[in-house]
Design brief:
This protein has 4 helices and 8 strands. It has 2 domains: 52 residues; 135 residues, Porin (Beta Barrel). A hairpin with a 4-residue loop joins strand 2 and strand 3. The two termini are 41 Å apart. The chain is of the alpha+beta class and 211 residues long.
Length: 211
């Protein structure tokens, strides 16, 4: 909805400029320009969507320097979560576990879903940015545990920061923090660019098929 409004405003401004220009030069506005408004909006919408959903992530476009294109991280990633939480009963931390990160991304937005065998986290805010030549993925999330583990793992909020390696991206490595005073490391090195898994089982099946 916001994209459509923005496109209409931009096209409206351009059409208005042409009308004013014709008025200044010919002494009267050229109302025929308005007939092009709907066509121009449609053409701009198509071109914007082609760029936003597909064209921007082509490998050769991703390698163009200095044009502000976000690094493409789209796909389902397989990696490892290492928790630094210490169980007060045993004095030890949980063993590292396999997790999956689903990155749904266009040129103008990114959303993240992290899935473990016990819970699913979804991003509230997410951003891919470049600072001093280093690419980072940052996001805030809400984690909802499965009903069977709610007695020991309550719903919580957290944030994650990843360093992105390679272009095309080959690795995501970072840290997470939660409002339960827990933290840990995340490391993703395997990626399925074509598929966006909906749950843990589907993601696991993707990587069994490509193994």
């Amino acid at each position: 909805m916001k994209k459509t409004i923005a496109i209409r405003v931009i096209v409206g401004v351009v059409v208005g400029i042409f009308m004013v220009s014709a008025w200044v030069h010919d002494g009267k506005p050229d109302w025929s320009t308005l007939k092009l408004f709907s066509t121009a909006v449609f053409a701009c919408t198509v071109l914007f969507n082609v760029w936003d959903f597909w064209l921007w992530r082509l490998t050769w476009i991703q390698k163009i320097p200095g044009v502000g294109i976000p690094r493409s991280l789209r796909g389902t990633w397989k990696g490892t979560l290492t928790s630094f939480w210490v169980d007060p009963a045993t004095g030890s931390s949980p063993s590292p576990k396999t997790v999956y990160l689903v990155v749904q991304q266009t040129a103008s937005m990114v959303s993240i879903k992290l899935m473990t065998d016990e819970s699913k986290s979804t991003s509230a805010l997410a951003n891919v940015s470049e600072v001093d030549g280093s690419v980072m993925l940052t996001y805030m999330y809400l984690n909802k545990p499965d009903l069977r583990v709610e007695h020991r793992s309550r719903i919580h909020h957290g944030s994650t920061v990843f360093d992105v390696s390679g272009n095309p991206a080959r690795r995501l490595k970072g840290h997470y923090w939660t409002d339960r005073d827990s933290k840990g490391e995340l490391d993703f090195v395997e990626r399925d660019k074509k598929n966006l898994a909906d749950d843990f089982a589907e993601a696991a099946e993707l990587f069994r098929e490509t193994a």
